[in-house]
Structure formats: structure tokens, C-alpha cells
Amino acid sequence: MIKRLYILLPVLLLLIQSPSYTQEKEKEITISAASSLTDVLKELGTTFKQKTGVKAVFNFGSSGSLYQQIEKGAPVDVFISADPDIVDKGIKAEVLETSTKTILLKNTLVLIQPKASELKIKKLEDLQYPEIKKIAIGNPSSVPAGKYAEEVLTKNNLNLSLKEKFIPAENVRQVLDYVGREEVEAGFVYVTDAAIAESKVKIALTLSGHKPILYPGILVTGTKNPEEAKSFLEFLKKSPEAKETFLKYKFILP
Questions:
Q1: What is the model's pTM?
Q2: Per-residue pLDDT tens over the stretch 140-167
Q3: Which residues are annotated as a binding site?
């Protein structure tokens, strides 16, 4: 009996180590994406996992800050920016894979107010009114929405005159929070941000006079999951589920 057990032991060990006895580690990819994509990508990440079995782990923030993390070696597979200039910078530095760049979405810049505000803002010049004491704006050096807002204000000769009223924010969602909590009289965000907080904020102005607001998606150079990362970008670009979800959140398809 003991002799038979010794003979069978190697077979038992092989069985225990086989795929049917061991659970493989769940496949994951890491995506660094602009804050304005938070809600829509969380929803699409769930759909992507259901379709492919690959878990999408998200890191949201201002596009400039996320790029700095990638530049310093953060383990990221896919980068989705709200500013094409940042992506072009990464391509030149060979931090991002130029052949994988694709424009996923467009957006619109708006000026918002707290929902209960009785201040009438009919044009940008109205921001000079003394009743408007604080205006939230993303830091233009790292937050694309702040950069676009600065372009609009400069074009209208308002940037310098309003500077003292600016309350800087680390990302566009922080601007949304400031306005939603009535800590400021106005703020610059995307129309998609305003849409998810319509119970707390309202759109005063839809703005133009800035560069097109585009969202390029691209693989990070040296990603350890190139096939899964490409599959995720393909899913966002071409799948009916992604298109439907993007439109639901008020994004514009390219």
C-alpha cells in the first residue's frame, strides 16, 4: 500500500499543479486617464472586463500630472489625455508609442455656476463684476481645461484682469466640486463634468476660441501588456458599447 502511494505521489503533485487545480492570477492593465473621464471609463471598464476577462485599473488625474508620473517610470499601460500637446511631448521623448495613438473623443468647455446662484452671467466680461469674487480654474500648466480657459480669457483680454479672482485647482473635478459646494461663484469645466453634477451646478456660458479639445489614447512605451492594452483602446474606439456610453455622458465622437 505504501509502495503504491510513493508511485502515485508524483502524479498527484502534477494534478495539483495543473490549471484545473490552480487559479491563474487575474489579468490587469493600468490606464492613466484625464479626470474628466472618471465616470465614463469606470463604467466602460466593467463592460470591458465582462467581454474580455481583463481588469482595467484606472488612475485618474490632470493630464499633465499623469504624464509626469509616466515619464518617471510609473507602471502604466495606456495613457488617455485631454490635451494632445502632452501626448505629442511624450512621443518626442519616446515615452509613448506613436504608432498606437488614436483620437477617442472630443469635448466642450463651459463656464458653470452653483445651481442656486442668482448672478446673471451672459458674457465673459461679466466675470469682472464685483459680486463675482472667486473663479475656480484648473492650473493651466498641468490641467488641460485650465489651459483652454486661459486661451479663451487671453483672447478676450480678460486673463490679467481676472487673475486675482482665480482659485487654482489640481484637476477639472476639483473645479466642479468647488462650484458644486458654492465655494466659488463660477468655474471652468467641460460640459461632460457639468452633466454629471446638474443637480448642483448650471451652465452659464458655452465657450469657444481655444484649441480643439481632443482626447488621444496611446500605449506607454515598454508596456508589459501590449496586446491587452491595444485591445482596450480598440474597444474604446470601435465597440458599440463604448460609443453608446460616451454619448450618454455627453462626449462628442471624433
A1: 0.86
A2: 999 999 999 999 999 999 999 999 999 9
A3: 36, 63, 145, 172, 190
